[in-house]
Each structure stands twice: as C-alpha cells, then as structure tokens.
What does this fold into?
Amino acid sequence: MKKLFTLLMLTGILSFGYSNYTLAQDEATDESAMESMDDTSAMEEAAVEEVAEEPVEEVAAPMETEMEEEPGFHQIIKLKFIEGDWRFMSTVLICLILGLAIAVERIITLNLSTTNVKKLLAGVEDALSSGGVEAAKDLCKSTKGPVASIFTQGMMRMSEGIEMVEKSIISYGSVEMGRLEKGLIWISLFISLAPMLGFMGTVIGMIGAFDAIEAAGDISPSLVAGGIKVALLTTVGGLIVAIILQLFYNYLISKIDTLVNQMEDASISLVDILVKHNLSK
It folds into this structure.
C-alpha cells in the first residue's frame, strides 16, 4: 500500500513537472513568436513610413524651390525705393519722369521736323521755273519743317533783293534754332538736380546715423547701418537718373546739330537758286 501510494506521488510529481515544463516551453515559444511578430510589424511600419516620407520630400522639394526663387527686377527696384526713404527717392523719381517726358516730346518733334532737303530744293527750282516766286512760296508753306519755314521767309523778301533774302534767312534761322532747342534747358536741369538730391539724401542719412550713435553712446553696426543704407541708395538713385537723362540729352543735341547743318546748307543752295532765277529773267 505504501509502495502504491509512493508510486502515485512520483507519477503526480513527474506529470506536474512535465506540465510545467510544457507550459514554460509554450510560453517561451509564444514570446518568441510575439517578438518575431513585433519585429515584423516594426519593419512593416518602417517601410510604410519610408514610402510615406518619400512623396513628402518630393513634394516639399518643389515647394522649397518655389520659395527660394529670386525676386524679379521690378520687385528689387520697388524694395530699394522703399528702403531708400520715399521722401528723397520720390524727388529723384519725379526728376526722371519729367525729364523723360520732355525728352520723348523733343524726340518726336525733331523727327517730324526732318525734311528731305534735296526733294524740297528740286521742287522750289521747278516751281520758280513754272510759276515764279509765288508758286515756290506756296510749296514751301505746304511743307513742314524748319528748312521750309526758312525758305518761306527768304522768298517773302525776294522783291527787296538777294541781300535782304540772306539777312532774312540768317535771322529766321536763329529763331528756328531756338525752337529746336526748346525744353533742353529743363533736361539739363534735371540732370544736375537728380544727383544733388541724391547727395542731399546721403548727407541727411549720415546725420541720422551719427544722431543714433550719439543717442546710444556706442558705435554699433546695427545703429549706423540704416542711415548709411539710405545714404547710399539715394546717391545711387540720383546717379542712375542723371545717366539716363544724359543719354537722351546727347541724342537730342546730336539731332539738333544735324538739323541746323541742313538748314545752313539748304539756305546757301536756296540763295544760289534765287540768283540763278533772277539772272534767267
């Protein structure tokens, strides 16, 4: 009986230990399986995150490119105009606008004043031969330009002699030359005034910089940078305006010189034609 009871106890102990060993092994297997599943899910999540992040980078790259685009030329000009203090930059801009307006008006007027001198002289000679002085005078009145106006004034003194014709041509030539040069004095004024206004902005900007230094009691780049920047921008603005207007001014002077030379040559040719006409009579 004791042996049977001991055998049963040993059997129970062995079965209990085996069950515990099996359970421990199963738990270890489950834990390893769970760890492998966790690793697999972590790898899948990492892969998903990488796939999800790639389009974001591709989308973000064009956005960063768009944000980093350089501003246009007109935007830079507008920015510098504001940074240069509108009180000084506005006066410089007004000089540019007024100077360009006068220059464009003069260019149009001078181009319309250009006359085909050879054609006009041939027409005057033919009119004198066919219809006399009155026919030539009517031809000159119907033709635009300073050369035709000088011819008209000269032939109006034809009855008083060739000497009076020459004097009339010389006198009226000075009048026409004054009309051609009309407005140039204003362009010259703006050429001189724009840099002066720029330099005045420079001086005032430097005064503001030194006032800031005096108020702070210390020299710091942040204190003087604003005033110096205004000073330099106003100076640059004035010089740019002066350069632009100077180019237009030189073109107008060249055009006027060409027209004056045409008037002088045409006047000499007209006197010769009138002398020939008197001799033929």
In short: Confidence is low (pLDDT under 50) at residues 1-31, 33-37, 50-67. The two ends are 180 Å apart (CA to CA).
